[in-house]
Write a structure and sequence with these properties.
By secondary structure, the protein is of the alpha+beta class. The chain has one domain: Sandwich (Immunoglobulin-like). It is 22% helix and 40% strand. It has three helices and ten strands, in the order αββββββββαββα. Strands 1-2-3-4-5-8-7-6-9-10 form a ten-stranded antiparallel beta sheet. The protein is globular and about 45 Å long. It starts with a helix and ends in a 5-residue tail after the last helix.
Amino acid sequence: MRRLLFLLTILLLAVPALARDGLGTFAQWAAFRDSETPRCYAIAMAVPSTMQRDFQPFASVGWWPRNEVRGQIHFRLSRKVQPNTPISLSIGRQRIPLVGGGSDAWAPDKRGDAAIIAAMRSAGQMTVNARDASGRSFANTYDLQGAATAMDAAAVGCAQIR
């Protein structure tokens, strides 16, 4: 299962595989460093579902040290979202609004990124909820086992890059 996750994660990303260094696989999450960009990130695919999926959904937390971006949340959603409708993230008892469009969603700002990362460290799963272009509700769920370690590995992987 871990090897399958690792291989599928590599396929998800459009950057050539040789440009990335694997920093580790931690349960459902993996961490990578791309020295050419430079950037580091933790990433996981959504829990498998029998519901319609137009895209393979994934969650990532990225660091771009030269741009002074640390811990930026990004979700690739399984469907295109309906314009001007809410996208939200449920983690434990928290419900956090997201911003986005097309098939992507993010925290609205740095404070939102920090709140999501803090919640990810203490929860077992998180779920993104939205409405697709046809107005139908959909959700993408993520297992958070290994997320904290993968995020730490990505942060350390980019700590020396300037």
